[in-house]
Amino acid sequence: MRISEKPLAARLKELGVELHAGVSLSEKTSLGIGGSTDELVLRRFDTIPEVMRLLADEKIPHRFLGGGTNVLIDDGELPWVVLHLPTSQPGMRVEGNAAYVDAAADLGGMVTFCAKRDLGGMEGLIGVPGSVGGALRMNAGAYGTQIGSYVREVELYRAATGAIETVRGNDIRFDYRHTSFAPDDVMLRVKLELPSKPFKEILAGIKVCNEKRRASQPLNQKSAGCIFKNPPGGSAGRMIDELGLKGHRAGDAMVSDRHANFFINAGKASCADMLRLIDDVRERVRIRFGVELENEVILWKN
Ligand code: EPU
């Protein structure tokens, strides 16, 4: 989708919005997959409602892209513009046991920033790639920690009302890789409440998690983390592994030979390759185990 309307481009510029034409989203995703579109960079949250109104008036569909680490984006020319909310460094501050963090901040960066100020609890999240906003939306978790447990307030843009709102943590449901946020809510900032813990102790926990992750996950390859959610009481990775599918491919999309629930881009994989691999593996698991695996990765496709 291209913004060719001159008056719209001029108005966006007046609002301080940067327009990057024809950006390849394969460069913005951890899978290295995604077609091209125009990107709008919004440095000020208060411009979001106006930008949304302008795009709606011109009937220009849009999507917000965060860290790009848990999304599989279609190939070719994309039918939506992409909006990005960058953070000013470091995008976080601590007051007592509260941490105030921009959604665009790096999740791992947040864990270490808080650790250095003797605030712990989030050690398990250390190697989870992506932004704080993406982690909030999905209720990211690893090694017994999930971000939702620490959320006290979220500031968001609510598309349903066209306004920026603050939601209390108690009013948000955080389930396994799922939250009660509306699909078009846009995370802006979060307030977390974290337990006090000496930096040294937090660091020891971080080291343990890092080692476990390094031993079991393909960290140096292009992936979106786990492709499927674990079914209740089961493990998608173990089932795919038991089917002997490590190394199984569709084009350049490949089941990791380290962790079978990680699908990697082993070269120039397209979205179509990845979808063929996902469908193929899902079908084999269904036939063998009678379990219908649900995607964990978010699919951006028309
Ligand atoms: N297993 C295999 N073969 C494999 C992979 C795993 O046999 O190829 C076995 C393991 O030996 C273990 C069990 O399956 O007995 C579970 O594996 P693991 O501990 O790696 O955890 P997981 O359930 O596969 C989940 C999360 C990960 C998170 C880890 C650590 C999901 C879908 N995955 O993986 O999160 O990092 O636990 O807490 O919930 C993600 O969300 O993208 C993600 C990678």
Short note summarizing the structure:
The protein is an alpha+beta fold and about 300 residues long. The chain contains seven helices and 19 strands. The protein is globular and about 55 Å long.
Percent helix: 25-40%
Biggest pleated-sheet summary:
5 strands, antiparallel
The quaternary state of the protein chains shown equals: single chain
Ions and ligands? uridine-diphosphate-2(N-acetylglucosaminyl) butyric acid
List segments where confidence is low: pLDDT < 50 over at least 5 consecutive residues: none
Distance between the termini: 13 Å
Mean pLDDT: 96
- Report strand %: 25-35%
Radius of gyration: 20 Å
What is the general shape?
A: globular
Summarize the helix and strand pattern as letters.
HEEHEEEEEHHEEEEEEEHEHEEEHE
Counted by DSSP, the helix tally is 7
Strand arrangement within the widest β-sheet reads 6-7-14-10-11
User: Based on DSSP secondary structure assignment, what is the total number of beta strands?
Assistant: 19
- Class inferred from helices and paired strands: alpha+beta
3D structure, described in words:
With 302 residues, this protein is α+β, with helices and mostly antiparallel strands. Helix content is 26%, strand content 26%. The protein has helices at residues 6-14, 48-57, 107-116, 132-138, 199-216, 236-242, 271-289, and strands at 18-24, 36-41, 62-64, 71-73, 81-84, 92-95, 98-102, 141-142, 145-146, 151-158, 163-168, 174-175, 178-179, 185-193, 222-226, 249-250, 253-255, 262-265, 298-300. The strands form six sheets. The chain has a five-stranded antiparallel beta sheet, with helices on one face. The chain has a four-stranded mixed beta sheet with strand order 1-2-5-3. Strands 15-18-17-16 form a four-stranded antiparallel beta sheet. A hairpin with a 2-residue loop joins β6 (92-95) and β7. The two termini are 13 Å apart. The model has no long low-confidence stretch (mean pLDDT 96). It binds uridine-diphosphate-2(N-acetylglucosaminyl) butyric acid. Uridine-diphosphate-2(N-acetylglucosaminyl) butyric acid binds next to β15 and α6.
